[in-house]
Amino acid sequence: MIKGLFFAKRKPGWTPADFQRYWRTTHAEITRPLTHVLHYIQSHTLLVTYGNADLPFGEPPYDGMATMWFNSVEDRRIGNLTPAAQAAIEDQANFTELSARRFLLATEVMQKQGAATASSVHLIALATRKPGISVEEFQRYWREHHGPLAARIPGLRRYVQNHPFPQMYGGRNAPLCDGVAEAWFDSLEDVKHATQTAEYRAVRADEPNFLDTSQVAFILTQDFEIFRRSGADAGPKNADHIR
Predict the structure, then answer these.
(1) The predicted structure's pLDDT at residue 208
(2) Count of Cβ atoms closer than 10 Å to residue 127 Cβ
(3) Tell me, what's the pLDDT at 232?
(4) In angstroms, rounded to a whole number, what is the distance separating the alpha carbons of residues 69 and 54?
(5) In 197-217, which positions are buried (b, 16+ CB within 10 angstroms) versus exposed (e)?
(6) Which of 63, 125, 168, 207 could make an SS bond with 211 (beta carbons 3.0 to 4.6 A apart)?
(7) In-domain check, residue 243
(8) Contact indicator for 191, 128 with CB cutoff of 8 Å
(9) Gyration radius (Cα) of the chain, Å
């Protein structure tokens, strides 16, 4: 099972609300015939985070992230050649800034298994490794040392690391970053409280040991499940929490 993460920015002239409405309705309907996609979740950047200096992490660099699961890289490649998939790909030009699209194929490393609720806030962090550290060293440190530190943050319900496929490096499809962390909290207030704890400060203090801290980017989102194929063993097992 493989996981694809797609980061999107809205088309110039579109408001975040217009972008999200089109993505969740018109574009979502176009994707439903894609039988090679086993599970599809849209994570919409919280509207309250735009232009809000009182919230942590600053202005969101993306308007959302789509997550899709596939049986294999080959299934994804072949499936994307179908007319239905081409229609979905072509529709992206109607609401996204094509030059700003980013994509990552990754494997999941579960750091904290847990449930979320309908009001959960999904924090997504894009990480780039420190210069001079190899991909293998970065992934090992992140998985074995930094991940367990982050899993201790109070209020954290679920925590997943996404490690890019090693074969993505060195080619024209090099990954946009070296890892994507996903963390779920019950509310935005819980996120803000977490950033004031000693455990969170320990996590941020550890980042210079393996990250290029100038490249770390965050978005705060809410999840919307678009579909899950019957019997598909992909993605969160507690998917009933997603609207």
Answers:
(1) 98
(2) 22
(3) 65
(4) 35
(5) eeebeebeeeeeebbbeeebb
(6) 207
(7) no
(8) no
(9) 17
CA distances (Å), origin 235, targets 108, 146, 160, 238, 240? 9, 23, 11, 9, 12
Q: Is the separation of the CB atoms in 182 and 111 below 8 Å?
A: no
Smallest CA-to-CA distance from 242 within 43, 7, 63 is with 43
Q: What is the DSSP string of 149-183?
A: HHTTSTT--EEEEEEEPGGGTTSTT--SSSEEEEE
pLDDT by position in tens, the chain (length 243): 899 999 999 999 999 999 999 999 999 999 999 999 999 999 999 999 999 988 889 999 999 999 999 999 999 999 999 999 999 999 999 999 999 988 999 999 999 999 887 789 999 999 999 999 999 999 999 999 999 999 999 999 999 999 999 888 887 778 889 999 999 999 999 999 999 999 999 999 999 999 999 999 999 999 999 999 986 665 665 444 454
Residue 88 φ then ψ, to 5°: -65, -40
Q: Give the whole-angstrom CA distance, residue 44 versus residue 155.
A: 21
Integer angstrom CA distances of residue 168 from 18, 174, 215: 33, 5, 19
Into how many domains does the chain fold?
Answer: 1
pTM: 0.93
Q: Domain limits at 80?
A: 2-231
Would 240 be classed as within a structural domain?
no
Which residues fall within 8 angstroms of residue 189, CB to CB, at 6 or more apart?
A: none
CA distances from 52 to 46, 103, 165, 187 (A): 11, 27, 35, 16
Residue 180 resides in a domain: yes
DSSP character string of 31-80:
HTT-TT--EEEEEEEPGGGTT-TTSTT-S-S-SEEEEEEES-HHHHHHHT
Check which CATH number belongs to the domain holding 177 and give it. 3.30.70.100
